[in-house]
Amino acid sequence: MNRFKAILLLVVLMGWVGGIGAQEVGGYKILQKASLPGDGGYDFLTVDSDSRRVYISHNNSIQVMDADSLKLIGTVENVPHPHGVVFLPELGKGYATSGDPGSVVVFDLKSFKRLSEIPASKDADVIIYDKPSGKVITFNGDSKNATVIDPNTDKAVKTVDLGAGPEVAVSDGKGHLYDNLETASMVIKMDAKTMKVLKKWPLAPGESPSGLSMDLENNRLFSGCHNHLLVVMNAKTGKVIQTLPIGDHVDGTAFDPASGNVFSSNGDGTLTVIHQDSADKYSVVENVQTEPGAKTLALDSKTGRIFLTVAKRGETPKPTKDDPKPRPKIVPGSFHVLVVGK
């Protein structure tokens, strides 16, 4: 074999292997769609991969869907302006934030009945559970603070001033919490036990972060920013490692350790898939076409599939004094769930 043929064969083989690698980390598409009743607003959704449930904030309620059949199996009623959900199987209870009036609704995981309501703060939004400290924490956007709840008593035990409007937060399970301060374009690191803010790190060039997820093994944070960037940050040092292009109006990110992929759900109707080549190197694999408005997501860690919620929008109402920036109204009967996978 002459030198030219040898080089040509090597190029072909490299392309073939590279194609296999790209197919392994990419190739996502919409696999399923399922309609749910109700024409109200919607926000976060959460997957309980073990019990095969998806908790969906929608229509002044929390709708509970079977993660496999996509059938509605229950509803937590009377959760005004719902946002986030966490579940504590060991206590048999779930917790859902109600942005207006600014509270947390406690519900039974078997019957889905309301058990109690805990006062929090105005615009109670994101909610997480930190297992080491045993606390449920809400992050309250307009109030610029966090509310700490003891799930054993279902009482708010502390309110923490954050100095700026918070968005999505995560726990590293090792005594620390991290939160995107959307209005300050920063990430804060907190002591999960004392709730003291330990560090404040700028996300520049990222601006106005919303979605946040974490690679626990490598201590990497993934902040989805509204200036079309995903920022990768070292959770130990606060150093920005890399920024990558994503779609418009991101509201959620997720990291799947099984595939090494980071996902960014964008309101422009795309799901950006980014692969972790190493702890300090990332590359955009593809932008999956979803539907306009599908900006929040949840990862099913058992299947590697992504759940998104979306509804069709009609015309935008005229501005009023009470609502100077109205959003387009939801088309009746159009709310549904998308399942993206391979």
Characterization of the model:
The chain is mainly β and 342 residues long. It contains 1 helix and 28 strands. It has one helix at 3-25, and strands at residues 29-35, 42-48, 53-58, 61-66, 72-76, 82-88, 93-98, 103-108, 114-119, 124-130, 135-140, 145-150, 155-161, 166-171, 176-181, 186-191, 197-202, 209-215, 220-225, 229-234, 240-245, 250-256, 261-266, 270-278, 281-289, 297-300, 305-310, 336-341. The strands form 7 sheets. It has a 4-stranded antiparallel sheet, with no helix packed on it. Strands 2-3-4-5 form a 4-stranded antiparallel sheet, with no helix packed on it. A 4-stranded antiparallel sheet has the order 6-7-8-9, with no helix packed on it. A hairpin with a 5-residue loop joins β20 and β21.
**Can you count the beta strands?**
28
The helix fraction, in percent, is under 10%
The helix/strand class is mainly beta
The coarse overall form would be: globular
List the helices and strands and how they pair.
Elements: H1 3-25, E1 29-35, E2 42-48, E3 53-58, E4 61-66, E5 72-76, E6 82-88, E7 93-98, E8 103-108, E9 114-119, E10 124-130, E11 135-140, E12 145-150, E13 155-161, E14 166-171, E15 176-181, E16 186-191, E17 197-202, E18 209-215, E19 220-225, E20 229-234, E21 240-245, E22 250-256, E23 261-266, E24 270-278, E25 281-289, E26 297-300, E27 305-310, E28 336-341
Antiparallel strand pairs: 1-28, 2-3, 3-4, 4-5, 6-7, 7-8, 8-9, 10-11, 11-12, 12-13, 14-15, 15-16, 16-17, 18-19, 19-20, 20-21, 22-23, 23-24, 24-25, 26-27, 27-28
